[in-house]
Amino acid sequence: MEKILGVDLGTGSVGLSVRDTDNGFNLQEQLVFFSANIFKTGSGKDDRGFTVKSYAAERTKYRSVRRLYQSRKYRIWATLSVLIDFGFCPLSKEDLEKWSVYNKAKGLKRIYPIDALEFEQWVRLDFDGDGIPDYSSPYQLRAELMDTQFDFSNQTDRYKLGRALYHIAQRRGFKSSKGETIKSQEEIDLDENSNIEITAELKKSEEKKSKDLTAYMNEHNLKTIGCAFAHLENKNIRIRNSQFQAVRSQYEDEIREIFSFQNELDLNSEFYKGITSKKKGEGSIFFKRPLRSQKGLVGKCTLEQNKARCPISHPEFEEFRALSFINNIKYRKQNTDKWNTLTDEQKQELYESKFLRTAPSFKFEEIIKWLEKKVQFPLSYQNKTINYKGKTNVSGCPISARLRNFLGENWKNYIFETNKYKENKKNGTKHQITYDYKDIWHICFSYDEAENVIQFAKENLLLNDKKAEEMARIWGAISQGYSMLSLKAISNINRFLRKGLIYTDAVLLAKLPEILGEEIWLRDEEIFISSIEAMIKDNREEKRIMNIANNLIANYKSLELEEQFAYKNTDYKLDAADIRQAEQYTKESFGEKTWSGMSQNERELILADYSIPHSLY
Predict the structure, then answer these.
(1) CB burial class (10 A; 0-12, 13-18, 19+) of residue 56?
(2) Exposure string over 326-350, b if 16+ CB within 10 A, otherwise e
(3) Are 227 and 234 in contact (CB under 8 A)?
(4) 251-271: per-residue pLDDT in tens?
(5) Distance of CA 65 to the CA centre of its chain
(6) N or C terminus of the chain with fewer C-beta within 10 Å?
(7) Per residue in 51-94, pLDDT tens?
(8) Comparing C-alpha atoms, which of 198, 289, 194, 189 is closest to residue 248?
């Protein structure tokens, strides 16, 4: 009895049916079981009943907006804490704590300081307490800080500076980070009742507005964006509806300009550091929470299945990609049969001269011209004297090239020695903290902002401004993406690629030093490599012959019984048609291009190796 199970999987239901084909030819009689399970769908429907949206997408959209508001509140509370500590805000620490601390277990809810009259007047720009704001907007106050010297021994002037800084903390501008879209950041200023979906198009629009603002400031000789927005207000232009948008760096510049202009303020003071530092626990306005790590989403290596894949910008991967290509380059003189590979010296020179460049890719025709000078005869893919077309796109090693420019010719052995030491908690010993080229790459790869890279370069590597900027350019050049292999697998394979082996051979040998042990491997390395290369070559030939034989057998068995000639005839001998068929399958095994590129002599030798008589060929 034959039964057929039918399953219908939908977004809101699962249907099942069982047909018994022995119950006659009527479909209704064959249907012995059917069922439908209906469940709540994960998508919403429009007025016409069509599925148009995901509930999860709607939920996460609002969650993103909530997080924007949350990060803004934390930033404001941190700024108020610094202002209170240095006497630039009339709010008390107790009231700020009631406003900012929430503890569900203790039943503590956040309470806005509505009873703090002086703070309320401070927020309303009423510094003399007469119930009338002293400034039409905070922008006017920020503009005044750039053209009038304040007396900061006067508490009112201190409160004015604090109020201007508080306004900047509320609207500090957006800043896009490497590899992010603006949607994933908490960097943009939103109205409290705003529900804007932030898109890549919006980001481009904001960047254009910031460039327009810079041009406007230059045209009217305005030093800060606070002055620029005050200038717009004086022309009765509403800031939020204008064509201008400020970015993070412009707010940073404004605070620095204010502290430079006001004689009683100091750029090296703890107050300035507390307001502007980007370190956690120090800065308030410009500190940015690091994004949640996405390492857990990186796929696993196809060879080392417990290891994560290696980023494509890693110097080891760039070398792996370059050597895999270089070791496959073959060339020959026209009208000759022997193909040649590059010598070890040529491979090294080609890698350093052509692949170590800041451009991400180049055309293979550059390698052809370089190689023609070495071999002193013309090379052409059309004439079958080289195995790659001139228009083939070749990936370079841009990050490795930048690291070489940054560290010097001996970049792989360069070590940064710092004045910091790390203590071993087990034995109490200390060792000096050092950084090599892989550490430099890792810093540039992991940091989200160029400013962090520059700060690290100056504080830890003790570099000057020029070298720190050069390191930041490495950060900017790092591309996103991951290879199919882990760093461990790539390092193991590179060991053999550097010896000139092609990729497939290098992969087969890569794990052996770890399996046998480094001591045993190093002692008999040449013997191991030569023996395994011979085994690989023999295995390939045997595999090719088996594939050709199996294809011939499969073709023979696919014939109808009456067409299967010589069935159980031990006296049958191959004729010319059989040889042509064997040649055809041999040709398919090598590939059309490879076979057609061989000379007549080469084909005869191959067919002779496969025991096909010359007379029949």
Answers:
(1) exposed
(2) bbebebbeeeeeeeeebeeebbeeb
(3) no
(4) 999 999 999 999 999 999 999
(5) 25
(6) N
(7) 566 777 777 878 888 888 888 898 899 999 999 999 999 999 99
(8) 189
Per-residue 3-state assignment (H helix, E strand, C coil) for 332-397: CCCCCCCCEECCHHHHHHHHHHHHCCCCCEEECHHHHHHHHHHHCCCCCCCCCCECCCCCCEEECC
Element of type H or E holding 315: helix 315-326
Range from 179-188, 231-240, 374-383, 511-520 carrying the lowest mean pLDDT: 179-188
DSSP conformation class of 20: E
Q: Give the HSE-up count for residue 524: Cα atoms under 13 Å, Cβ half-sphere.
A: 8
Closest CA to 563 of 571, 574, 555, 573: 555
Give me the sheet containing 13-20, strands edge to edge. 3-9, 13-20, 31-38
| Cβ contact 469:454 at 8 Å | yes
What b/e sequence results for 550-589 when a residue is b if at least 16 CB atoms lie within 10 Å of its CB, and e otherwise?
ebbeeeeeeeeeeeeeeeeeeeeeeeeebbeebbeebbeb
* CA-closest candidate to residue 384, choices 330, 343, 346: 330
For the entire predicted model, the pTM comes to 0.67
| Side chain identity at residue 346, one-letter code | Q
Residue type present at position 163 = R
Q: In the predicted model, what is the mean pLDDT of the chain? A: 84
List the alpha helices (DSSP H) in 31-125: 55-85, 93-100, 117-123
How would you classify the pairing of strands 31-38 and 43-45? unpaired
Q: Please state whether 278 falls in left (phi above 0), alpha (psi between -120 and 50) or beta.
A: alpha
Side-chain half-sphere of 397: how many Cα atoms within 13 Å?
A: 25
493 confidence band (pLDDT: 50, 70, 90): very high
Amino acid at 119: F
CA 184 to chain centre: 15
